[in-house]
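Ticket #4471: complex job returned nothing on first submit. Input attached below:
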Amino acid sequence: MSDAPDEGLIDLDLTRRSAGGDRDAFGALVIRHQASVYRLARLMVKTREEAEDVLQQTFLAAWRAVGGFRGESSTRTWLLTIARNTSLLRRTHVAREPIDPTPIEELGVRAGWGGPNPEELAVAAEQRDLLVAALAALAPDDREILTLRDLEGLPGIEVAEMLGLSLAAMKSRLHRARLSLAVAVRREGSHATD
Amino acid sequence: MRPTEREVAGLKCSQVMTELSLYLEGDLAPRRAAQIEEHVTHCQACADFGEGFRRMVEAVRTRLGEPEPVPADIAATLRAALDS
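Support reply: We reran it on our side without changes. The output follows.
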């Protein structure tokens, strides 16, 4: 059995102490989670300055609200939910992108399903820079769910709740986002070899 | 071009492709998961795509999972805002 501390228990302890007014405990939470919050903000808003603003607003809001945190989700999910909502407020004046109507089988074909070069997806995915570029090329909603589920590793049920989806709908959206990523990875990979 | 649709182990190739994430997450009933495993044993196209897809998801998690540090100037501004 690993002796590594349970990160969730550490967060819970810090959150409870923060709720009691312990600024040092809250500061520790900020250090532990600011990178994740900033990453989500950078993916959801347009500029570095806006992301910085979201980061500040998130933790200021969290400090004000920590007394009401009931631990129904993880601390990270709670913070990322605040960050997401803060980011979304900045997008109210921007028309949301329409839901991609591409049939999933067509998405699969574009991702390489049944294609002549089955190894190119796996080979391309080994290159970090290529993955980063492919992720950046995705629609915002696809980037968001991939960030929450695959990069942050949040539980599926918490991601579903955060996005206002049923668990089944979240899983379906996640798979479509992953297929879209595969399309982008193959495209970036083909550019790299041009 | 759409791949040739085959039915192996009671599943069509399109069904396997559609349920790949559910399979990788362990969200399928054991019988369904076993059908997918049987299908890919006998369908090279689905085996190849499934392996590439699995490696891509794993690469995303392992290579991109750790966020980059917040830029020092931004972290300092945040600390100042919280301290005020």
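Strands of chain B lie at 7-8, 11-12. Closing as resolved unless it happens again.
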